Fold each of these.
Amino acid sequence: MATDRPAIIGGGLAGSLAAIYFARRGHNVTLYERRPDIRSHELPAGRSINLALATRGIAALERAGVYESIKNLMLPMRGRMIHDRAGKTSLQPYSRNPDEVIYSISRTELNRRLLDAAEATGHVTMKFDHCCVGIDPAGGGLQIEHEPEARVADRTHKPIIAADGAGSIVRRALMQATGEQTDEAILDHAYKELSIPPDANGRHRMDPAALHIWPRGGYMLIALPNLDGSFTVTLFLAKDGEPGFNTLTTASAVEAFFREQFSDAASLMPELAELFFSNPTGMLGTVWCPRWHDGGRVLLLGDAAHAIVPFHGQGMNCAFEDCLLLDEALERHAGDFSRAFADFAASRKPDTDAIANMALENYVEMRDSVRDPGFQLRKEIGWQLEARHPDRFVPRYSMVMFRTLPYAEAYERGRVQQDILMRLSEGIDSADDVDWKAADSLVTERLVRIPVSARTQRNSRAG
Ligand code: FAD
């Protein structure tokens, strides 16, 4: 059946939000999702049961008119709660401004609400259990398999928006058609999801207003709160090493490792070994794709275009921001897909490259640097510089999580700021010993003012 309706491949986080944006522009969209409808089926989460939502994601949800409908899913986290080996905790706030927080949110609930909102537009036809198994980018042809019956049908759509995730079949077809190559850089660390159940009264067993981290140098455990009183816990560890997933092959090895490294967490996980062996070990990686579009016919969005490692909590936020920026490009080009896709891809690629690098760098910060007194000192000096020069000096973490200035700019400014911090902290142990006159000159000489629009901090506390 020939049709010139836009198709979205993948009804995950990016696909469902993109469907809303396209519908709001008056398009009748068909959304093909290979899984059953998650609103009526309980599916294994597969990966990350909950996620950190921050300003960029919120800005995109706001523009699409769906932010209000998801607010009651959000749990504010004001900082990192660091757990040492003895179980002693210390809070490292994310910002000197207490309103700058990130939010833990359930992946499935968020996805369900976005699908509801897409359906409510009246312009989105949802095809669940429909897997895209082939694509002809130049002709706009799709082969869609209706999974329960293993029946494959040909469909024609324009444009085809690929939001089919890190393993995107559309990306592979696009690369094959153009003879280009994607670099899929798989990390030598993997992850495992575990859980801390609620207490007997259904309450959280740790502070729910923080992201908990057990940094251990080469690896780490983290935990994010859920609305039902539980925490989703994730172990990030080398695939092969000592310790590594390869050495944790028996219940006693897992229990001993957790008792030794994460004793306070282990005591809150009665089903540790059971969960460890029943949950999958997840792969992590970065997708560096040289081309995201084929004229106005095909466009890759979200993880399909630029999957990143999860250590900055930005993959979903970045995918949502893609949807917002694409909508702005369509607005600028009066709905001309060809021009809008080219404009979007050219301006966005340096930003997604930058966040991919920052996400890799943040793994070291989370699992190691947070324990270093030098890191704490530089953070303290950074906050004071921010207080003195709020329009010039904003810590890199804040630029990524609480601002909307382009990632590439945050990356570049972050480099300059790090250099300033290294110079100011050299040979001192306390921020009281900083030469603030010299510090002010360095900031005004080396950092231009951040444009007002990108300074706006949009995620004031939910609810
Ligand atoms: P996906 O969520 O992968 O969705 C792709 C969809 O396409 C799926 O529904 C899939 O079923 C469907 N699909 C795939 N192939 C086909 C096909 N051939 N035909 C039809 N449908 C298809 N990001 C954050 O912002 N904050 C975080 O805290 C965070 N934590 C994370 C923790 C972990 C452990 C991991 C692995 C990731 C984390 N992320 C986080 C990243 C985030 O999960 C992704 O960036 C986000 O899910 C990308 O959304 P997407 O829609 O592009 O892809």
Amino acid sequence: MLTGKTAIITGANRGIGLATVEAFAKQGAVVWACVRTQSEEFEQKMKEISSEYATTITPVYFDVTKESEAKEAVKMIGGYSKGIDILVNNAGISVERLFSMTSIETIGNTMEVNFLSQVRLAQLVSRLMVRNRTGSIINIASVSGIESEQGSIAYGSSKAAVIFSTKTMAVELGKYGIRVNSVSPGFIDTDMWKNRDNDVSDRIMTRTPLGRKGTAQEVANVILFLASDMASYMTGQNLVVDGGRLGWGY
Ligand code: NDP
């Protein structure tokens, strides 16, 4: 599905990002796997995946919130590649705190990581995509950006901004052959849920028709679909991957 394509994936060391690296490699993509901390374990994992699927995966190190690092990384990738076909803006943090208890600084920081960093990278990478008049950008949002829930002033707002900005980018970049879509996962079994309250997860499960958490691979499959030519007539969409969740049940 992705033979001959080059992809940039952020947050590639774990969870949905790692599953996406694997899904893309399996389909023949050349992957630039972006993480903020260098580690032997990560490099080893990338070597294993690339040799299993006979493709190239190159680790790239930068913090998505650092403008100069992001610019440098995209410049470097652009210098080595004939073009970038796919950007998966996946890196993100979760913040769960009541509105009245959340500092403006926390909201700002969450917006910076989850929203502004995605916009910055999309700007940098779309400039390269424009040259080849083709590209697919997938921004990872969340169901929290669609439906309000208690404690989601920072996280939910940042993800709502992702969904909205995706549509704006799609409108502006369509004429260059660049598609921009978002994916909104529901309750996915990754480290992000490690410290969540059991009551919250029980409540979500009772309102999830499929009756279980999703896996990182199940989200990666949808990202893969949007990245591929199978979705060639889709742009400005937000695909929800949440097991059919019926809201929060307030
Ligand atoms: P994880 O917590 O497992 O992974 C988050 C990734 O983002 C890590 O690779 C982390 O790197 C990276 N990251 C965070 N901050 C930065 C930064 N400043 N610079 C570079 N990388 C950074 O989460 P998931 O895999 O579950 O989440 C992936 C995406 O999916 C996120 O955008 C999240 O909001 C979204 N999502 C997840 C849901 C879920 O239920 N799991 C539900 C809805 C949306 P490091 O290891 O260095 O911290």
Amino acid sequence: MEKIYLTGDRPTGRLHIGHYVGSLRRRVELQNAGGYKEMFVFIADAQALTDNIDNPEKVRQNVIEVALDYLACGLDPAKTTIYIQSQIPELCELTFYFMDLVSVSRLQRNPTVKTEIGMRGFKESVPVGFFTYPISQAADITAFKATHVPVGEDQKPMLEQTNEIVRRFNYIYGDTLVEPQILLPDNAACLRLPGTDGKAKMSKSLGNCIYLSDDRKTVEKAVKSMYTDPLHLRVEDPGHLEGNTVFTYLDAFCRTEHFAAYWPEYANLDELKEHYQRGGLGDGKVKKFLTAILQEELEPIRQRRHEFEQDIPAVYDMLKKGCEKARAVAAETLDEVRRAMRIDYFDDAQLIAEQAKRFAAKK
Ligand code: TRP
């Protein structure tokens, strides 16, 4: 089967380097490697509204931020269809049909949704739309017959839910939809990049993010204040790598050629780690190295973003074209879905002819 890549992001803020190593970097590589039929990347504004219903302006303002981050990272509208979820009404239709295929107790077991409900303090008043977003996410994926979905680890339960829906749908209505495969980052540090404070996840509310659009000074400051090893008090003390954010970031960003460029005293990351653990290597030096690597990676992204920021109407124009193309694809799938579900009344000449005959014979 030909590959169809699809993924998306909620527009609740600018994208940060956790998004980058978790999925964005991979998407751009996949896009440029070729060998696929289609690549879809979308801005999940309708999903963002499920827990921001009273803050539509936040979602509205962040659509462009995410679009700019996409373009800055190298997503290319000539190769990737970039669109906005809410502009594809077929997704709502498909979600509605999928709702019949999922039980309430199955949704209650979704670990990501469970955690999110706790974090958002919904208590007893979880909005139905939020509770059911894994179903709408299954529609996002299957409306485009995606075969591969590059996302972070937290999206695993959504893909499992999607595959259950696809199997159930195909079993009941006949082979129509495609089971997607998750594409996770292959490096453990990229799977879940911690915040600069060492907390498990980067999040805007914790103020522990490095954004793709942060300027050089902000990045430098963020690394300087980064959490390391609290037991590594003096340079000569042995250092620990576990939970040491600076080393986790190096695992995610460092390539061997960075040593030749910025720190030729070491041949590779293993040598550096060894010295750190032995003692005699200060955090400041390691942080300086990490800063150099991050600046090298982020500078071209910043520059491209700045260029795209000069022509915002053109970015909206690109998004509009993407929506048109995406809508045409989703509409085709929905035609198949309606046919499979036996709700294609007006397109089924046979149905009408047979019923006409039956009723005529009744007299
Ligand atoms: N839930 C994803 C996130 O929070 C966004 C998303 C919505 C998505 N629909 C999707 C990702 C479909 C992949 C495929 O980032």
